[in-house]
Write a structure and sequence with these properties.
- By secondary structure, this protein is mainly alpha-helical.
- It is about 60% helix and about 5% strand.
- It contains ten helices and two strands.
- A two-stranded antiparallel sheet has the order 1-2.
- α6 runs antiparallel to α7 and α9 crosses α10.
- The termini are far apart.
Amino acid sequence: FPTLVIVSPEGDELARLGSVPKEPAECLAELVAQRDAGLARFARIHALEAALIDDEDTTATTKAAIEFLSSSAVGAPGNARLATIVRTSLALDDEARAAMRDAALRVLFSSGESLPSDRERAFQLDPKNVAGLLELAVEAEVGAVETRQQSFAALDSIDRLIGLPLVDPERGRKLFANAARWADRARDDAAIRGRAPRYAKAALELGIPNPELAKFLRGIAARRN
């Protein structure tokens, strides 16, 4: 049978089941179980949205949304709505909310729900990558690239990381190595020319355990453009 999707009257996806090698009764039971879980999930989201409007102090609501989104699978129905609640904490500038802002940005990046404005907020809050927010923001920006212009902007963001300490060196290796590959392929483009060697050098400085990749990057690093 084709994929079956159950949605609420509001259009929220509550359950989804494709063709599986099970008896019809088993499929129906699984679909009903997913529906019930979906109803419970969206009831929690509705409650958080209502609390965000009704409560004068939204700290508890925002923290609950951060925890909820953190425990949700990437792409789970309702994640975008949870992200909207989480994002309200980013406008708070007082030092007492710094930990919550940090947690909010981390979960927005890890859930795949970050927006360009979230990445800009991370750039502002952690320009030297002390907390590792800058590298998470850059990784999220690279992952969101869909156009040529966005790829140029992503390379500009990768440039921010060069020379800074990295919380996760493996993340840095991947970012710099992939940037070196891409910039090397596009080295005849005036907007890219000369950038591949510096990404390759940055990756090599972090150590490349793969001998073939290290050799490839050394070749790029040795080029003049």
